[in-house]
Every structure is written in C-alpha cells, then in structure tokens.
Amino acid sequence: MPAWQKDAVAEYLNMSGLPPSSYGYNTTGRAYPDISAQGYSYCVVPFDSYGCFIAGTSASTPTTSAIIALLNDLRFQLNKRPLGFLNPLIYAHMDAFSDITTGHNTVDGRHSSKPAWPAKKGWDAVTGVGTPNYAKLAEMVAFLP
Going from the N-terminus, what domains does the chain have, and what CATH number goes with each? Predict the structure, then answer.
C-alpha cells in the first residue's frame, strides 16, 4: 500500500460495520477508489427530449477530469506548474473534498443485495475521500509551490 494512503485506509479498516474478513479482501495492497463523483442519472445532453442520461465512470470521469483541468488552468494563470501526480495531494488535503458518509455498495452490485462496504467518515472503500470541492481545491492549489 502506498505511504500516502496508508493512514487513511488503516483508519477505515479499524471501523465497525465492515464486511467480514471471510470475504477474503486484501488489507495490505493499494486501496481504491481515491475519489468519487456523481455517476448516476447524469444528464449529458441538456434539454434532450429523449432524456439522455448516463451512469458510472462515463459520467464521473469526464466531470472529475474537467475539474482537474480547471485547477491546472488556475495554476498556469499564476505562472505555476501543473499539478502532476495527484494521489499524494488528495490524501494530504482530504478536507478539500466533500466527504460522503452515508450509503454502501453491495456484495453483487444489485440494489437489493446485502450491503458490503459502507461509506464512512474519511476515506472509505465506496467513495474514497469524497467528491472534489472546486472552491476548496482552487484555494489550496493556488498556494502550492
């Protein structure tokens, strides 16, 4: 497990309400996800008469990429270098993300299935450290060297 996420993941794994270890999950390797974003019933064509909605990473990845592009653009305007590899930065500034503390995924991905990983305060195996908060991230990255 990378050093930059070790403390956040360890804190989660010490919380109650997690799946039993008999599920056979690895507690020493790279944990994921790092972050999350809206990914359900996401409108990609405003005012589309067909109601063009997508879900999953097809929705959340472009949104997150756009936020990171805007953060890099802000840094360019300040004559600073782009952010580069983000993962250590994410875990060092978890307060710049909106923590998701309710909900869970399921054992088999079905809505009616038995809950597996719960969302909790801090990093969790469902939503990572949460969703990007552009205003907080912009303030933070503006002051980074």
Answer: 3-143 (3.40.50.200)
At a CB cut-off of 8 Å and minimum separation 6, what does 138 contact? 70, 71, 74
Model-level pTM? 0.87
Q: Is 9:126 a contact under the CB 8 Å cutoff?
A: no
The per-residue DSSP string of the chain comes to: --HHHHHHHHHHHTSSSPPPGGG---SSS----S-----SSEESSTT-TT--EE-THHHHHHHHHHHHHHHHHHHHHTT-----S-HHHHHHTGGGEE---S-EEESSS-TTSPEEEEP-SSSBTTTBT-EE-HHHHHHHHHH--
pLDDT, tens digit only, all 145 positions of the chain: 999 999 999 999 999 999 888 777 889 999 999 999 877 777 777 666 666 777 778 788 888 999 999 999 999 999 999 999 999 999 999 999 999 999 888 877 776 677 789 999 999 999 999 999 999 999 999 999 9
